[in-house]
Every structure is written in structure tokens, then in C-alpha cells.
Amino acid sequence: MFKDFYAQRGEYIVISAEQASRFAKGVAGDYNPIHNPDARRFCVPGDLLFALILVKFGLSRQMEFRFTNMVSADTPLLFSEADNGELHVSDESGKCYLQVVRSGETTLDETAIEAFARCYVAFSGKNFPHYLKPLMEQHGVMFNPKRPLVIYDSMGFSLERLDGFNPNLALTRSSLDVQGKRADALLEFSIESAGDAVGVGSKKLVVSGLCHYDASEMAAIVDEFYRLKAAYEAA
Which domain of life is it from (predicted)? Predict the structure, then answer.
């Protein structure tokens, strides 16, 4: 699963800029410029780290992910489990990029894991413009159009079961807590399988460098998003 998006080098996983960018666009539908291989502040999508955690350690009924640092391209990453059961993604110097707390039943079934990972990543990739633009417009704020910065802070979910799993995620509630030049966006979602409610979850994003909402500037950013999307799909 997802083996095309990383390379295994001994005990470490290495993700190139090209692999990370292909995952962002091709799997998540995420055209954030920060995931372009030539981006000055390039970073590996947090959703790729999320997917690889599930591949390596399985899908648990309760999981909490906290992203603590941004991962640069070609950083050797160690995926490990601590004595207390916490999962960590760290580099060779011990710098931690992702912490995961989990509990409850765990499945290693590849079909269930891939279905949930792809379903969540497709949902998560819609951060902008689908979820964030209406929130920012409602509150009269937006990120700096010349330097848009949206950071993946954390996410978590709770599942009632793991068997007979064909998940679908839907946004149930969204909110934006503005604090000066930054804001916390909370996206809450339901998880269904074959029409039955099987879980709930939420995702937190941090939007930095806030300024007053400018409809024309935002329209230009949205147009660029769809231009990049069309160009990728055409290629």
C-alpha cells in the first residue's frame, strides 16, 4: 500500500519531493503550492505520514495524531513504537514530526486500512478551497495571498467497529477561532459504512498571517487552485 510514495532505506523511510507531490495531488487532491517539488518551503503532506502509520501499525478504533514539525524532502524517517504504546515519526537526530496515541481493537487487514486511509485523505485534501474559504469569508479574514500558510495541527477519530468496513467521510461541522493574526480551524466529520454510522472524528488546522478578507484576491487564489488541478489531470 502506497509503496510508490516512499523508499525504504534500512530502518528508515525516505520520501522525495516528487513522491510527496504526486501523493498530494493524485491521492489527496491537494494542490497547495507548499507540496510542489520546487517550492521554497516544501513539506511532505501530513496525510502521507498518516497513511504510512496505518500501513505500518494498523488501524485502531481510537487514534489521535499530532503533527509537531514539518517534514522536508529526503529526510530519513524512523517509524517507531514507544514502550508506552505511543507511535512516533522521527528523524536520525531524534526530532519528532508526528505523535500518535491509539487504543482499542486494531486491524491489520490491508483492504480495511487502505479503504480508510484513501477515504480520509480524500476528505482531508479538500481543506482549501472547499472547507476553509467559506469559513474565512464568514469571519472576514484570510491568509496572506502572497504567502499562504495553513498548518496541519492534529486529527483524531473513534470507530465503533473495524469489520465489514467500507468507509465514507462527510463534514458535519466547521468552525474558525480567530486569535489576532492566526486562527484555529476545526473540521468535524462523521464516518459511515454502507449507510450506517460507524464513527466520528475531527481535524484541526492553524491558519497564520491573517489579513482582512479580499474577495478578488481570494477568487484569484481559487482560480489558481483549479488551474493547477486541471493541469495535473491533463498531464
Answer: Bacteria
